[in-house]
Design brief:
about 375 residues; five-stranded antiparallel beta sheet; 12 helices; about 45% helix; binds 2-acetamido-2-deoxy-1-O-phosphono-alpha-D-glucopyranose; binds magnesium ion
Length: about 375
């Protein structure tokens, strides 16, 4: 999929949501690495339109059906005042469906919350606290949702042992040129067996929850008037998972001094004050419903998410860039090196990470 507007397709998709393309002003929206997302403005309405990437989501109906179920649950919570954020929801097509199919491709439409913005990085401790509280409230609100109702959108999405297997398959089939370009990263990943084993160990003990699985800072909408979080967006990968995944993903996107695809690794540092604020607010946001083992798992989650994402980026680089959108030839390699460096920096501060997580206020946390 290219980033230019696919006018011919849009001209077929929009009527199925009740609009003619001539009546719509369409622009690209967001920085996602998977789906193509557009903002559509008509005279009387603004909404989001998304082309679901079927190479990644090979059962796209599951994506839209899961999103409906999660939205409905959050709406009940919001109506009875136990979820303070705005639940986002999908709009219906003229056939009353949560998706439309054009030339075998799936599209869906989402409601647009006006007067909001997203962030690519965190600039203050206060911001870190509100971000972490919002993501925790999202997962806490889903704690009584029956995870068996949700389809596993991408099987083994955050399963490190499967990601390692996919990486090994990519190593076996990659060209020599790509293997040489990636050799230091490959060797480093292969030297991390002790860490890989520790993840396998803890996942045997952790309870499954319904998690978001993509808690990057840019998946939170903020109000332009109050600067407070308004909504958690991108429910594509909402499915059973572990709380350490969501916490680790949020931390990896909020704490480093450079973007996830920056090659300037010498400039990378971690803001530990922000990490502390994120940790305290995240644990508090669960209002006592996080178990002791889940709280302890957050220490591993901080290291796991950049490590696993670096493996995913590197696997895609070795496979010839089939999964993540890229804008230049070594983009996935640069991302992989960036996330590996972040993992390294976290590993160097093991004692500090442990201290931050274990000394977070626990007054509400059941033993
Ligand atoms: C992808 O497309 P986006 O930005 O929502 C990816 C996440 C990664 C992220 C890295 C389905 O998310 O897992 O953490 O890129 N989503 C999928 O930026 O693979
Ligand atoms: Mg996503």
């Amino acid at each position: 999929m290219t980033s230019a507007l696919p006018h011919k397709l849009l001209a077929q998709v929009l009527p199925q949501f009740g609009y003619a393309i001539e009546d719509c002003k369409i622009t690209l929206l967001g920085n996602g690495l998977i789906n193509n997302t557009y903002l559509v403005k008509t005279l009387d309405k603004t909404f989001v339109l998304q082309h679901v990437n079927q190479q990644v989501f090979n059962a796209p109906r599951q994506v839209t059906d899961n999103a409906d179920l999660v939205s409905a649950h959050l709406k009940i919570k919001s109506d009875n005042k136990s979820y303070p954020l705005t639940p986002i929801y999908q709009l219906r097509s003229i056939d009353n469906k949560n998706h439309v199919k054009v030339q075998g491709q799936y599209w869906r439409s989402l409601h647009y919350i006006p007067q909001c913005y997203t962030l690519e990085s965190i600039t203050s401790i206060e911001q870190a606290s509100v971000v972490a509280r919002a993501f925790a409230q999202f997962t806490a609100a889903l704690s009584d949702f029956n995870s068996a109702e949700l389809a596993e959108i991408i099987e083994h999405f955050h399963d490190l042992s499967i990601r390692i297997k996919q990486f090994q398959q990519a190593l076996a089939s990659a060209t020599d040129t790509l293997l040489v370009a990636a050799q230091t990263s490959i060797a480093f990943i292969q030297s991390q067996q002790t860490f890989i084993d520790s993840i396998a160990e803890i996942t045997k003990k952790l309870p499954l929850r319904v998690t978001h699985n993509d808690t990057k800072i840019n998946n939170l909408l903020f109000s332009k008037t109050t600067n407070q979080p308004v909504a958690v967006i991108d429910l594509d990968t909402c499915m059973p998972g572990y709380v350490m995944h969501d916490f680790g993903d949020m931390v990896r996107s909020c704490c480093p001094s450079i973007a996830e695809d920056s090659p300037k690794l010498d400039n990378m540092s971690i803001n530990f004050e922000i990490l502390t604020a994120l940790t305290n607010a995240y644990i508090e946001g669960f209002n006592g419903s996080l178990s002791e083992i889940e709280r302890r798992s957050l220490i591993l989650g901080i290291k796991l998410m950049p490590f696993m994402l670096s493996i995913r980026f590197l696997t895609d680089f070795l496979n010839g860039d089939q999964y993540f959108k890229t804008t230049y030839a070594s983009h996935n390699l640069v991302r992989a090196k960036n996330q590996l460096q972040l993992y390294r920096l976290f590993c160097q501060q093991e004692a500090l990470l442990t201290n931050i997580v274990l000394s977070a206020p626990t007054s509400n946390t059941p033993a």
